[in-house]
Amino acid sequence: MRSFLKNIFSNRKKGAMILMYHRIATARIDPWDLCVSPEYFEEQVRYICDNFQPVTMRDLIARAKAKQSLQNYIAITFDDGYRDNFTAAKPVLQKYTVPATFYLTTRFTAEKKSFWWDELEQLILATPVLPERINLRIGQDTFAADLGAAYILSTTAEKEISEWHYGHPLCNARLKLFYDLWAAIRPVSIAEQQRVMQELQAWVNKTISLPALMDEAQVKELSHISLFEIGAHTVNHPALGHLPPEEQRYEIEASRSVLESIINKRINGFAYPYGNINEHTPGITQELGFDYAASTREGNVTHRDNLYDLPRYQVKNIHGKEFSTTLHTWQQNHL
């Protein structure tokens, strides 16, 4: 028995890690920890290059299927398709010859090239003066709130917002309104999300600046660089677990179809938006012929993992030394 348990834990320590990034940028407000500064990103890539074997997801999956060693392998991935992946991440990855996989929504082909959560951040957390009361319908429910004195963004609240990250206490009324709206909007249909955001924009009545997404030319250029590969990430970035199977299938299949028509290559990998799935989702990605699908749950990749629900670690805005400690902790604590 002791030998059996020793083998189990030994094999788990030999697992690979998949790192998840979103944006390479410096942002004043970053509630979801999506941004890593260009300076810290270069420190992180340099450390990976010096201490690990970085591979694309395609190569990692090939090793997993062949039951080859996964120890010390790392795959870098990016979700959503923000333009700073192209302008800030790509040059660093090329400098150190480190491969990466980019999971793209096809929002960059839409008339409105932005994500609703970015709009919500700017509207609620960065607007100096909001109306004092809000009352709107979201799905089947009525959402109502009274901001009281918080309708004016105080210096204290502004500082608290700049320092707040998901998982910490909601320390002021602006943050509570933002989080409650986000939680109510995320599970509804894409059409309902768009309608609600239009109402919120009219309620705030403010012009906002949003982070850009890559355009088709940039996606094509990425796909032509041998270090990089493109994966699918749905059309509209819905929480798939809240959708019926036929709508999930459309979001997954249509995103791949659009991307394949742009880059003229087969798309073999998929990443679940928010990591949100239900009992149908992994089977749908498998039935559609993807080689694998990546989630957002933490853990090391071993030969026992379901290839259609692979774990990943979200990388935060930390410098190289802290990053090295974090990687070591992930290796040891998520076995």
Descriptive labels:
335 residues, alpha/beta, TIM Barrel, 2 domains, six-stranded parallel beta sheet, two-stranded parallel ribbon, 12 helices, 42% helix, disordered N terminus
- Mass-distribution shape: globular
The overall strand count is: 12
Residue windows where pLDDT falls under 50 for at least 5 positions: 1-12
The value of Rg in angstroms is: 21 Å
Helix content: 40-55%
Q: What is the fold named in CATH at topology level of the largest domain?
A: TIM Barrel
Strand content: 5-15%
- List SSEs in N-to-C order: HEEEHEHEHEHEEHHHHEHEHEEH
Biggest β-sheet description = 6 strands, parallel
Total of domains: 2
Cα separation of the termini: 19 Å
Integer average pLDDT: 93
Name of the CATH superfamily of the largest domain: Glycoside hydrolase/deacetylase
Backbone structural class: alpha/beta
Query: What would CATH call the architecture of the largest domain?
Result: Alpha-Beta Barrel
CATH secondary-structure class of the largest domain:
Alpha Beta
Query: What is the overall number of helices?
Result: 12
